[in-house]
Design brief:
This protein is of the alpha/beta class. It contains 5 helices and 8 strands; from the N terminus they run H-E-H-E-E-H-E-H-E-E-E-H-E. It has a single domain, classed as Alpha-Beta Complex (YbaK protein), CATH 3.90.960. The radius of gyration is 14 Å and the shape is globular. The relative contact order is 0.25.
Length: 153
Amino acid sequence: MNQRLKNTTEKLRKLGLHFKILELCEPAVSVRDVVNKSQGDVKVDEICKTLLMKGKDPFAVLIKGLDKVDLKKVENLIKHKVRFLSREEIKMQFEFELGEVCPLFLEIPVIVDKKVLELETANMGSGDLFCGIEMNPRDILKCINHKIEDVVV
């Protein structure tokens, strides 16, 4: 468990939120990696991913892992042309590698797709390629500056 994940778990405990750390036997970058490398029972339908994007300013989108962002919906929502941040931009601006991005405590707005809130449990990146975080998706909202929208294809 790296320092970023330790800091995140400490913040979650201080907020009194229930969560579980999911350990992986190898680094996981994709949804399939998480399923295949999890040391517990992870359901593919419960995996969520955080995508870092930029319109006028950076923002994140939290969606179910197998869903795809509808760029037109996002552009209509924020009233600006959007693009995904490159691997280099993610590393420079947020100090994350691909697969590490954790939506909790991002200091940018997070658009949460409505489908995420239909889940009983959400599994997401933790800031550590060897671990994930599992928690109630409604509790995620207590940690982030968010908007709930329909942003998937």
